[in-house]
Amino acid sequence: MEVKYHEERIPFVVIDDLYDDKEQSEIMVELDYLCTERRLIPPFKDKNGASDDYRNIKNVGCLYLDTFYRKRRHSSILQITEKLFRDDASLISNHPHWYFDISSINTHSTHILYYEDSNEYPAHRDECRFTAVTYFYRQPKKFEGGDLQFPDHQIEVECVNNRIIVFPSMLFHRSTPVRMLENDTHTKNGKFCITQFLDHK
Q1: How many CB atoms lie within 10 A of CB 65?
Q2: If DSSP codes are grouped into helix, strand and coil, which group holds residue 96?
Q3: I want to staple 180 with a disulfide (CB 3.0 to 4.6 A). Which of 82, 115, 143, 153 is the partner?
Q4: 175: helix, coil or strand?
């Protein structure tokens, strides 16, 4: 595992390889099950998605796991991703910037997104204190794009498998369009994203 604390222009954390091979395998099995047209909310149809002039801009399928599952123990994703918060969430709170005082954070929710060719999430803010995005994909990588951008600050963080990025939710951020060859579409070879919204009640 490698952790980098960025604070030159904006504060954020990049955590690589938090999850071991067994945990990744369990997560991917569940993502495969969930990321189908039968279960995902279609692009532009999520009533909680970001909007621009009352127009939904969320061009990606998604699912809210805390409402999909009646009990957290039924989901490997919900259980395994708690690893981010172990040791009083020190992976986050060790960031030297004052904003990363997470002592008041006492709740979080999880949703997943699946990006294939042309899917993107334009610039938006999230309505919580922190956002944590985790990327997974099958290797070798069969797509380009899908990177995290902070357009107001000209910062881009590459989409890397088993990478977590934690940042203040008030920052405008976007997921760049995913580009895939036609033969690779509809084969679960796109970008899986697990998003955790950290907040206080």
Answers
A1: 20
A2: coil
A3: 143
A4: strand
Q: Which tens digits make up the pLDDT trace of 96-143?
A: 999 999 999 999 999 999 999 999 999 999 999 999 999 999 999 999
For residue 20, give its domain range: 2-199
E-strand stretches of 10-161: 12-16, 51-52, 55-56, 61-64, 107-115, 121-124, 130-136, 143-145, 148-150, 155-157
pTM of the model: 0.97
Q: What is d(CA 108, CA 83) in angstroms, rounded to the nearest whole number?
A: 13
| Cα(155)–Cα(138) distance, integer angstroms | 25
Q: Tokens standing for 184?
A: 């690779």
Q: How far apart are CA 164 and CA 132, in angstroms?
A: 7
C-beta separation of 162 from 84 below 8 A:
no
Q: Which domain CATH number covers 92?
A: 2.60.120.620
How many separate domains does the chain show? Answer: 1
The answer to whether residue 2 scores a pLDDT higher than 90 is yes
Reference 159, options 130, 194, 201; nearest CA is 194
